[in-house]
Design a protein that fits this description.
This protein is an alpha/beta fold and about 350 residues long. The chain contains 13 helices and eight strands. The chain is globular, with a radius of gyration of 22 Å. The chain binds flavin-adenine dinucleotide.
Length: about 350
């Protein structure tokens, strides 16, 4: 009871929290068809009811073991949701999803989860993991490439060191002409990620890098990387950045995305349009009619499977970004921030019993 008293004020916040996100959710998904909308409204109402009930459940938690049970459910709920976006803990899990994805006509873009390594041991283990992964993709006949996070390769220990750890991966990818993509992380790493990309391009022409439409610097980076011959993956940007370096409103970011898209269609080679946004997809399809440039749509695992099928049906190339590994929490929290409806699903599963 005493413990519940500490937690109750926090828990009461769930009601407001649920109301805020459910409105936002319904407002944001205007393009979804009627049946899906009705279903979502019913689910959202149920979720809101469960979330409202959370303080009462905490009141009833009489001892530490009751609270431990609620905490355990929260972790299990989070892990359950993580499986929507993550293939599993092991390389075999990723290869399994990649095989299925290939069978449905999509290419696989595999990422081993992990970031911000500050010790050499995990960096070197990561480098070996990707070399083994590429060899396994070859022996399993998997179509697609890999996508690496620079800080997973020791960027925080120095860009030369990170480059030295990526080179074995690049050499393995080069054996069967696969693309090595660099994910883009938060702003303090942008210059070094671009520097690494340029060095990799000196050894292999199938190197790509992600550029984020929310960053004010992106037009300049796009020019520079197009000149260097990099493949570009255009995204809106998943990291919260300050107003001096990044656009803040959705409208501004969308406008920037559309402007970069035009540049890609007129100037780039074989780029990737990475979005789940119907409006960006529709504009891409319009531009594709006017410019016969090869490009891929790229989407994250577990976000818009029906849209992927629709695009494949229209003869478009689609890549699926597949993440695996036990370190799913930072990736998972970025996805939750983008799609708050999933927080409500989690709340429901751990307060609803
Ligand atoms: C292949 C790929 C690689 C990426 N790599 C990077 C990277 O290296 N660096 C980086 O900063 N960002 C990366 N991102 C993330 C990107 O920056 C965005 O944060 C993310 O894609 C959401 O933006 P959006 O274009 O889908 O549009 P949004 O405006 O965020 O979403 C549009 C619509 O998509 C749907 N949607 C979006 N997210 C979800 C979700 N999680 N669950 C369910 N539905 C959802 C909803 O219908 C939403 O209304 C990557 C994205 C993709 C697809």
């Amino acid at each position: 009871m005493i413990i519940a008293n500490y937690i109750r004020p926090w828990a009461k916040g769930w009601g407001t929290f649920a109301g805020f996100f459910s409105r936002d959710d319904l407002g944001e998904r205007r393009q979804i068809d009627m049946a899906e909308t009705v279903d979502r409204t019913r689910n959202t109402t149920e979720m809101r009811r469960s979330a409202m009930d959370f303080p009462r459940r905490l009141d009833r938690a009489r001892n530490l073991s009751d609270l431990a049970e609620i905490g355990k459910r929260a972790v299990e709920a989070a892990m359950g949701r993580s499986h929507q976006w993550v293939a599993g803990d092991t390389m075999e899990d990723a290869l399994h999803v990649a095989r299925e994805v290939n069978a449905r006509g999509l290419d696989a873009l595999i990422n081993h989860l992990g970031e911000h390594h500050r010790d050499k041991a995990p960096v070197e283990a990561t480098s070996q993991e990707y070399v083994r992964l590429l060899a396994a993709m070859r022996s399993n006949g998997i179509r697609g490439g890999v996508s690496l996070k620079p800080t997973q390769f020791g960027l925080l220990l120095g860009r030369e060191y990170a480059l030295s750890q990526i080179l074995p991966v690049l050499d393995e990818a080069k054996k069967d002409g696969r693309t090595v993509w660099l994910d883009m992380e938060s702003v303090p790493t942008t210059d070094d990620a671009i520097w690494i990309c340029e060095r990799l391009l000196e050894r292999h022409d199938q190197v790509g890098i992600c550029l984020q439409a929310n960053l004010k610097r992106t037009s300049g980076d796009l020019e520079r990387l197009l000149r260097a011959g990099a493949r570009i993956r255009l995204v809106k940007g998943a990291y919260k950045e300050s107003p001096d370096v990044a656009l803040q409103s959705r409208a501004e970011i969308d406008r920037a995305y559309l402007a970069h898209l035009e540049t890609l269609f007129t100037r780039a080679r074989d780029f990737a349009v990475a979005t789940h946004d119907d409006r960006m997809v529709a504009r891409t399809l319009e531009l594709a009619k006017a410019h016969p440039t090869p490009f891929d749509f790229a989407m994250l695992q577990g976000v818009r499977d029906p849209l992927e099928r629709e695009l494949i049906g229209k003869g478009q190339r689609v890549e699926k970004y597949i993440s695996y590994g036990p370190k799913w929490l930072p990736y998972f929290s970025r996805r939750l921030r983008e799609w708050p409806r999933d927080i409500l699903v989690m709340v429901r599963s751990f307060v609803g019993g």
